[in-house]
Amino acid sequence: MALIGLIIASIVNIYFFNSITYWVTTYAAIFIFVGLTAYDTQKIKQLNVLGNSGTE
Fold first, then answer.
1. In angstroms, rounded to a whole number, what is the distance separating the alpha carbons of residues 7 and 5?
2. Is 11 contained in some domain?
3. Is 24 inside any structural domain?
4. How far apart are CA 40 and CA 11, in angstroms?
5. What angle do CA 47, 43, 55 make, to 5 degrees?
6. How far apart are alpha carbons 38 and 34 in whole angstroms?
7. Which DSSP state fits 53?
8. Domain containing 13: what range?
9. Domain total for the chain?
10. Closest by Cα among 33, 12, 31, 32 to 21
């Protein structure tokens, strides 16, 4: 949901350029993608543990 909001804010910023909006969307994008990467990494680690259980 945050990603969709970021896309909309970026499109709006193309037409109504504002430097504050530019920086807010830039930092929001960084935090959103860092959060998504951390979430996906945790899911991969959990799937790895589940997949390797009972193989020892």
1. 5
2. yes
3. yes
4. 27
5. 15
6. 6
7. T
8. 2-47
9. 1
10. 12
Q: Taking a C-beta distance cutoff of 8 angstroms, is the pair 43, 50 a contact? A: no
- Given a cut of 70, whether residue 5 has pLDDT beyond it is yes
Could you tell me the pTM of the whole model? 0.72
pLDDT at res. 56: 65
Query: What value does the mean pLDDT take over residues 10-16?
Result: 90
CA 17, CA 55: separation in Å to the nearest integer? 57
- Write down the pLDDT at residue 30: 95
Helices 2-15 and 19-52, interaxial angle, to 10°?
Answer: 160
The answer to whether residue 34 is domain-embedded is yes
- Could you give the CA distance from residue 49 to residue 56 in angstroms, rounded to a whole number? 12
Instruction: Return the sign of the alpha-carbon dihedral for residues 8, 12, 13, 18.
Output: negative
